[in-house]
Amino acid sequence: MAKNKDPLKVAKKQTSNVMKKLNVRSLGTQRNYARSLTLFTQHLNLEKSTSLRNATQSQALQFLTDRAASVGQKQLDMDRQAIQALLQHNGELEASQTLEVIKTEKDEILQSRAYTRNQVELIQESQSDKHSLATRLAETAGLRAHEMGTLLPIEERAPDFREEHSPFRFREQEKWIAYTVVGKGGLCREVRFPQALADELEERRLETPLWQTDRDIPYKTRYDIGFGKQWSDSFSKASNRALGWSNGGHGLRHTYAQQRIDVLMHHCPYKEALKAASQELGHLRPEITLVYLR
């Protein structure tokens, strides 16, 4: 009878074989790359049933997106650099190509907490029209700040399908209007808004798409609404004016997660509710959504 192999030992062996082929001169960088690639290898072996040498750009971005919830920016950048070197070596990336820079969510997650409906209403009343609308959209669909700049009706852009969807996803939102947003790791996912909110959004549709830059990243925006750092700053200032404190706009994702879990558990067990809410939020693993439920 075959013995079960130690996943960590398997990952370390695969990493060691790859590291011999990468042109990394610094001993310190070699150690850092080896640690990052070992974690990535374990992810591939356990989650994707594939090996390091067959890693793809999509799998790399999924791994980094997951890591963004638990590590700081310095470690996340090291992981990205190590995986980028691997993908350039195996031909998945050209020598001049780079992996998308993923921003950490760790600090935001640890510092943010959910808002009540009344608190969100008070914040909105202290914002300009375009930022107030963005706040309602973020609360209703659990959007990240930059995702408001990527909104597009689902008829104009199809979402990605990186995993099997939960049958409980969007339960009690079946008649809502479907849009898509592009989140971390380039994941294009479906989000939904009630008809009245979708109508209000469409009233602010631009005749010609407008390129705008947020945190040095260009976005082709279709709506005259707040997004990115400008919206985040507006939200924090409005929250401080209205409430005397702010948990940041990211706290609206906590609000969404907690409200959706309550709704979904009327239709399915907790584990299934967690999976559905995770997919709605654009998390690729339900464990990450657990942090939002504190």
TrEMBL record:
One of its GO terms (molecular function) is DNA binding. Coiled coil: none annotated. The keyword Membrane does not apply. One of its GO terms (biological process) is DNA integration. It comes from the Bacteria. This is Site-specific integrase. The keyword Protein transport does not apply. It comes from Vibrio breoganii. Keywords: DNA recombination.
